[in-house]
Design goal:
266 residues
Length: 266
Amino acid sequence: MKFMFRRIWGLMYRHLSLYRRSWPRVLELAYWPILQMCIWGFTARFLAARMGNPGLMAGAALLGGVLLWEVTLRSQMGMSISFLEEIWSRNLGHVFVSPLRPFEMIAALIAMSIIRMLLGVIPAVLLAWGLYAFNLFSLGPVLILFFINLMIMGWAVALGVVSLVLRHGAGAEPLAWGVLFGLAPFSAVFYPVSVLPIFLHPIAYALPSTHVFEGMRAVLLQGEIRWDYLAAAFGLNIVWLLGAAYLFARQFHAARVSGALISIGE
């Protein structure tokens, strides 16, 4: 057990060293969440000025959606990009020549995604509070459950992206930036599922994020904690994570047998 944690920390330390030596990397983590918060924050302020109290509530739902969606996005990208950095530096083969096991690498990538997510989201949360008087923590302790669900979904998607990179090489790398944006319209981030066409409802409800954002709006607009949404989100996350883990295990084994772990970055 001691050596397992040492191996996980060793891989984490390698990535943390990159940020310690490069302030642009640290700045980039917070840049996009802050930019999104500025755009949607001013939109929320416009709605509040034009519509009064209804606009204020709509603005709060928008800001809450932006901040929570960044949790999913930064968790997914943090894990995917940390893996891609091993490929870009042609270090993947060296990593697995060491005693590091696949699940230990995944644990290290998950830990890095949490760190990257916090460094990106916390400045945006503070900006929302300072400029727009929106306190995300007013959601209460249930916010922790929202965060956990959205992070797990981000990790599941990231595992899927990593699996595709192992299978298809560099051609699948752009998915690390774009795949979650394709799910955003169905995740009900800024609007309820009822806005979507009926035939899209099954797709929306198959996403854990949809239940989180429906639950967020219930808390913000109705003051009610919808435990049914949270239970559905946790259940779907288990299915998503198990499916992604199985896909990763298969593709990792295939890449090891074919020698792609060494040649994938070339």
